[in-house]
Amino acid sequence: MKNTGQITRYIATAVLLFIGSAAPTAEESVSPPNIAGQDTSRYHNDPFVRPSFITPLTIPDSWPTNMPRNPHNLSPAETKTRLVMLGTGMPSPNPYRGGPSYAVVVDGSPYLVDAGEGIWRSIAKAALVNGDELAEAFLPQKMKYLFLTHLHQDHTVGIPSLILSPFNWIFRIQQEIYGPKGTKDMVDHILAAWEIDTQAAIADGYSSEGGKAAGHDILFDEYGLVYEDDHVTVEAYRTKHARLQDTLAYRFTTEDRVIVFTGDGGPYHPNIVRAARNADVLVTETVTEDNIQFAPWGGDTVEEKKEEIFRFHFSPTVLARIANEANVKTIVLAHEQNYNNGEDYEPLGLVNELRAAGFEGAIYSAMDGDIY
After folding, report:
1. Contacts of range 53-59, beta carbons closer than 8 Å, 24 or more positions apart
2. Do 30 and 129 meet the contact criterion of CB atoms below 8 Å apart?
3. Which of its termini does the chain have fewer beta carbons within 10 Å around, N or C?
4. Strands across the sheet with 330-333, in order?
């Protein structure tokens, strides 16, 4: 069995080397968008049968005909800090959006925020769309740091894959995973749950140094320093998301930018304003208020839906208030819940609602693979 394992490792290494040699150059990446940033989406050619009724599987936001564009790179050319939108989806499954996950890349070093469904596929897509610079930044052995906003499954279900896939690819990584109370237990349980897999691989010749991770609970009362190195300072701010008592917003400060992640929202919270103060970019979420009657959850009436849904997520009105009070320069929306009946779907509906609510800075509705 050990010889078989060694052969498998040689094959895997050869495949990785081939992929590296065949990686597209920056000049070979997807065509840039037009001035409006809305180049034609190649998803429009996907097979599609329009559903006659709406369920969480068939909401208009998931239709290929409603995917507005291809990924784009709008990051300032002069900056060393880039925000990469890995997965921009919400809990309802969208085949064109991965689960919530993002990366701050500073001078080639990546720092992940949240680990939604399909995180490695989202990382691979971003690398293939954007070329060698990102492919180099996302080398598996560099994926050492993950920061969790909260422990809902749609933001954490990718953790097993994040930890264990590099082990199968023969990379020796010690991953450090920071998050609310319960993060350490979650990581320990994941490692225990896949112990049969890892022990069999070790017996088959894989290095016992691979597939290692440590969870770190963030326990301070309001806010404080979580992590710091030569590239970045990461601070966390306690927030509230529905009944969860331990949720966090993160502020990443680098040499040339401040990028803030709210995680999932809810009612107005002063700590989110503190976290986002004078941020260059606020990565956040919101739910339509104008079309909330089409939400497939939250109650039977508009009033019931508003009361329930806005315990979990920002309304455009609340989000605009937070961003204005914090003097945020740019909002990047992900995890959007842009509900509609499908007859007059507007991909930028939440951008328009946020603008109408009074935010005058730049607003982007993100796609998987975007860079800001």
Report:
1. 54/294, 54/296, 54/341, 54/342, 55/296, 56/91, 56/92, 56/93, 56/296, 56/297, 57/92, 57/93, 59/92, 59/296, 59/339
2. yes
3. N
4. 223-228, 233-241, 244-253, 258-261, 281-284, 330-333, 362-365
Over the chain, what is the mean pLDDT? 89
Whole-Å CA distances, 191 to 123, 182, 183, 332: 22, 14, 12, 34
pLDDT number for residue 43: 85
Domain boundaries, the chain: 2-29+63-365
Residue 224: how many other CB atoms lie within 10 Å: 12
Share of the chain above pLDDT 90, in %: 77
Check residue 39 and report its DSSP letter.
P
Q: What is the length of the chain? A: 372
Which pair of structure tokens corresponds to residue 288?
């339509």
Cβ-contact 290, 353 below 8 angstroms: yes
Backbone phi and psi for residue 337, each to the nearest 5 degrees, phi listed first: -120, 85
Write the DSSP string, 211-265: SEEEEEE---SSEEEEEE-SS-EEEEEEEEETTEEEEEEEEEE-SS-EEEE--S-
Token pair of 282 as six digits: 């606020």
* Weakest mean pLDDT among 208-212, 218-222, 251-255: 208-212
- For the purposes of burial, counting CB atoms within 10 Å of the CB of 4, is it exposed (0-12), middle (13-18) or buried (19 or more)? exposed
Question: Rounded to an integer, what is the distance from CA 31 to the centroid of its chain?
Answer: 23
Query: Which region among 61-70, 164-173, 247-256 has the lowest average model confidence (pLDDT)?
Result: 164-173
Per-residue pLDDT, averaged over 2-21, amounts to: 39
Residue 315, pLDDT above cutoff 60? yes
Q: State the pLDDT at residue 39.
A: 58
Q: Is 147 helix (H, G, I), strand (E, B) or coil?
A: strand
| CATH assignment, 2-29+63-365 | 3.60.15.10
